[in-house]
Write a structure and sequence with these properties.
single chain; alpha+beta; Ribosomal Protein S8, Chain: A, domain 1; Wheat Germ Agglutinin (Isolectin 2), domain 1; seven-stranded mixed β-sheet; four-stranded mixed β-sheet; 10 helices
Length: about 325
């Protein structure tokens, strides 16, 4: 069904306000999850917010600094709503980078987050470079074998510029959130992506237990690196030893580009890369446009600003009225 974007936003805010979420926070959450909805990431859109909202009552308070040393901060999230906790941590990292030129903030004990994309864009408030990554449960199978070893371990980056570069992707072929949404909508999963408990490919969401890593051995190496950083710099538990969502680790790196290089050089570097992509040739049989990573989602987001309606499952939309 098609729903007015502003109507969906107001409906989401009203839903969150009933859960005792403050107006400002409800507005922020609504914008984050609608961004996923309009950029083709329905698995991290309204449905995910509705699913995670059942745990909002578990929050204990605001994130608390457990350790601080120069340009680094270690946070206990106090079971705060994930996106709100990460927003807090990102602004802390910006303040540290303003003082030291660079900062590293890690946080654990928070609820799950949606897409990293709208969160990493918060670095635009200072025009700083920002990286955000996190671990998850052991559901990603390595290049050889099928049992889950690492998490989907997404990575996102914000690079400032005349047209900022925003990159966000999981280190698995698909996010496991796709299985939850497919179950709800009674749809099949993409082929040769998810595995059952015996290691066979499955398109049935109720049978999917693992998901394949992207990029073969090289992709798995990146997944392992994110696993080590996000687990080792938080509470020290790898994906296979995590017992709940509160054991997941999140890591934020912030770089102040004004501190050690000219900002104009950074902007020129990004623009040169964009120019090379615009001049890139595609094969005659490829219909798709060549995008710089992250630009397709940004294009969809900009297009949505000129649109009145967004498509959403009627079943998901009706859940907002319960």
């Amino acid at each position: 069904m098609k729903v007015k974007i502003e109507e969906l936003r107001l409906r989401l805010i009203a839903y969150l306000r009933k859960l005792d979420i403050k107006e400002e926070d409800a507005s922020f959450l609504a914008d984050c999850y609608i961004d996923s909805e309009i950029t083709g990431r329905e698995s991290h859109g309204v449905w995910k917010l509705l699913w995670e909202s059942q745990y909002f009552k578990e929050k204990l308070g605001e994130p608390k600094i457990e350790k601080e040393f120069k340009a680094t901060i270690f946070l206990n999230g106090n079971k705060q709503i994930g996106d709100l906790a990460i927003r807090n941590a990102i602004f802390l990292s910006i303040n540290k980078a303003r003082e030291y030129g660079i900062s590293l903030v890690s946080i654990y004990n928070i609820q799950r987050i949606g897409s990293l994309r709208p969160l990493v864009k918060l670095f635009s408030s200072a025009n700083y470079i920002g990286l955000l990554m996190n671990s998850s449960e052991a559901v990603v199978s390595p290049a050889v074998g099928y049992k889950g070893i690492t998490g989907t371990n997404p990575l996102a980056a914000f690079i400032p510029g005349e047209r900022p570069l925003v990159i966000d992707y999981a280190t698995s072929k698909k996010a496991m959130a796709n299985t939850w949404l497919a179950c709800k909508l009674r749809e099949n999963l993409p082929e040769e992506t998810f595995l059952d408990d015996k290691g066979s490919y499955t398109v049935l969401p109720e049978s999917a237990k693992y998901v394949e890593v992207f990029g073969g051995r090289k992709g798995f190496a990146l997944s392992v690196l994110i696993e080590i950083l996000t687990s080792g710099l938080t509470i020290g538990r790898s994906s296979v030893s995590k017992k709940s969502k509160y054991d997941l680790g999140y890591l934020i790196l912030c770089i102040n580009p004004y501190g050690f290089l000219m900002f104009d050089n950074l902007m020129k570097s990004v623009q040169d890369l964009r120019n090379s992509f615009s001049e890139s040739k595609v094969n005659d049989f490829v219909a798709e446009k060549v995008y710089l990573p992250g630009d397709h989602a940004e294009e969809l987001s900009l297009q949505a600003k000129n649109k009145v309606f967004v498509s959403i499952s009627s079943e998901v939309y009706e859940m907002l009225f319960k």
